[in-house]
Automatic annotation (TrEMBL):
SUPFAM superfamilies: Methylated DNA-protein cysteine methyltransferase, C-terminal domain. One of its GO terms (biological process) is methylation. This is 6-O-methylguanine DNA methyltransferase, DNA binding domain protein. Residues 13-84 form the Methylated-DNA-[protein]-cysteine S-methyltransferase DNA binding domain. It comes from Anaerofustis stercorihominis DSM 17244. The keyword Methyltransferase applies. The lineage of its organism: Bacteria, Bacillati, Bacillota, Clostridia, Eubacteriales.
Amino acid sequence: MGKVLDDDLIFLVLSIVEEIPEGKVATYGQIAGLADRPNNARLVGKILGMSEYYGEYPCHRVVNHNGRLAPNFHTQKEKLESEGIKFKNDEHVDLKKHKWII
DNA sequence: ATTTTGACACTCT
DNA sequence: CAGAGTGCCAAAA
């Protein structure tokens, strides 16, 4: 298998995001690790920013390692709350309770 | 080839 | 808990 990047990486990342169960959240770093690129969390964020172009994915279930929501994704909180995610405050989900463990 | 950018992670204060 | 500083690395400029 050749080097995996852009289009292949996008497909891989999105397929992983698709696996996050309802009521759970994952971090960018976690997704990066599952995609076998543990140091590319930032790339995961960039891909999710464009994910709409590729289809419907539960990208609202991805937050940073502190549980902070994505900037400029104003419907994220309500989507998470609608599936039962609890928040520590306005900007941070309760990762302790809801982090997706494989 | 070099610099900047990014929905990040980690450590230290 | 909030900032600052550092590390990270592919993509785009």
